[in-house]
Structures are given as C-alpha cells and as structure tokens.
Amino acid sequence: MHPLGKRKAHLYRLGVGSIDLDKVQMYELEETFQHQGYNPATYENDIALVKTLQPIKLSMESNVNSICLPEPKEKILGKATVTGFGLNYLRSTNIEELMSVEVEVYNKSYCSHLYKSRLRRGMFCAGSKKGGRDSCQGDSGGPLIKRNIDGRAKIIGVVSWGIGCGRKEYPGVYTNVRMYLNWINKFVKPQTSAQIVKPSKHKQVQQTSNDTFNEECLKSHNEMRRKHSSQPLKLDNNLIEVANKLVIDNYYEFIMNKDYGQNIARYYGVDPKCEQVVQLWYGDRTNYDYSNAQYSSQSGAFTQLVWRSSTKLGCAKKAGQSGSMVVICLYDPSGNVRGQFASNIYNEMRLKK
C-alpha cells in the first residue's frame, strides 16, 4: 500500500517477531511519515516511516532486532535478499509464511536500458537474468537486505514496483535507501548498533564478576577517550542496574527520547575482557569522517565511546544461548546527538612519548 501518508495511523497495525502471520506481535501505530515528494503516478520517493504507539523491545535471543542503514556512498551491487508475505507468483494467493529470495542488484545503466524513463532518481532494479526471482504484489514496503562480512544486516532497498513478477526482462524496482538517509535522520534518533563476533568454534564461556567487569570497562573507556581529549567517565550505579536488567531479561532496547546512549556487542564461544569489547567499538574510528562530522552506522560505536559530553558509564554482560556472551554499556548523557558531532568528537591526539 503506497500512499501511506494519506491514511490515518490508527488504521494500521505493525506485526513483528515471527515468519508466521498468525503468530506476529502486533503494535498499534502513533504516526506515519510518507515522503513529502511521493508521486503515486511514477512511484518517485516511494518511502515511508512509521512510529509505534508503544516501543518495540528488540531481543538478542528472539526474532525482533534492528537493522543498519547503508552508508551514503556505499556500493550496493551484487547479491541481496528480499522478503515478504506477498504473492509467490503473479496469479497466486498471498501466503501466511514469510518468504525470501536472493536477487542480483543491477547497475544503473542496465536498469535504465530495461525501464527507460520510468526508472527515476532514487530507484534501482534487482532480480535474475534467468527470471523467477523477484518480489511481487503484496511485498511493497518490504526490505531488500545485504549482509556485511561480520554478519550485520543492512537495508539497501524498499520494494516499490515492477512489471509482472519474476520476468527476466523486467526485474523488480526498489527505492534506494541510501538516497534518503538525510530524510530518515530527520525522524529517527541515531543509536549505535549491535556488533557480533563469531569465532570458528563454540566453547563454554565463563563470566567474570560484574564489579570487576565494570572497572575494566571504565579503565578501557577512559584510555580511549584520553586519545581524543574527552573527559574521563565515572561509573554510575543506576546505569549499571539498567544495563544488568537489559541483559538479564535477555533483550536490549533502543532507548528513544531518553538520556542513555548505548553500545552493544555479542560474542560466541569466548568470555571477552572489556578491553577487547572497547577495542572492537573503538575500531569503528576508521569509518568516521572528521571532515563531514555526522552520525554513521559504521562509526556510531566509536563516536559514542569518545563522546565528550558523556560523563557516566554502566556496563553488564551475560552468557546467552549457544555459547554466546552479550555485552552492553550505557552512557549518560547520550552521545551521537545530531548537530553536535564537531564539538564532541576530536581527532586522535599524537602524544609525545
């Protein structure tokens, strides 16, 4: 359903948490945001956001989680996966179980050759040159996803339109998400994303005490912050308590419109020292562009870690399923505040030895 913004939010429900339509968790919507430039005749700017009435709890152990946005200049060509509950071919009926198919993202010249002037700015096409792999009616608004080498998923496209389904001469057309990052960021408060580390083999993990772990985290954080002229953090019992609740309840939640920033990591088969975790987050500094000081999903862990205005820290970790270990650190006040990056992220100091 494309003209989302012209309908009232209370007419919709958002279902999450299951590949079975009968088992999804339903959330009422508070507000919908259709792109102001949406054209129903051409499907230009075919993108929208929704805000739920109640926060959605994201779980490390369940089927509900966040997804990363692409970088502004990121290359999106190659294999990607599209999912949806729509038709599995043009004259079929809608299905009750979420389907997925791998498609090939094509370059602009190939898509323009097939669709001529119908392919507008902010669109790309994806499918199979043999046919049979495509999104279809009922999939509109669904995600086209690529995965990083570290396993993190990114939404690169949104199912928009096409001619038929699965036709080799007419691959599906998608809204190019990276062309709309500025628009998205007007509505979405940026938060750092979960990071996953997977060794080749699982082994049983053993957990250090929470007090010791927090002391290690504080030391490691302040060592990294010192490199960027950021004031030392102090441990805060309230943040530690909240962080422990998040991992004990086996979920983490992006805290919207509150003062807590957060960094999260998940390890498999190892009980990481906090120094290792902090180094993982700090490694995102290579993706931060000091000349264009703004939030990026690829550097958000680093920018929160060294954010100058953050003064308090609280961390926790817990052994999860399949030999995993979840680590979360909370920060107060929150970092990654839009418009404040230049004053909060200083380039690394070159200290004299």
TrEMBL record:
Domain of life: Eukaryota
Compartments reported by the entry: Secreted
GO annotation, biological process: proteolysis
Keyword Glycoprotein: no
GO terms for MF: serine-type endopeptidase activity
Alphabetical keyword list: Disulfide bond, Hydrolase, Protease, Secreted, Serine protease
Lyase is among the record's keywords: no
CDD domains (UniProt xref): CAP_GAPR1-like, Tryp_SPc
Name the UniProt record assigns to this protein: Serine proteinase stubble-like protein
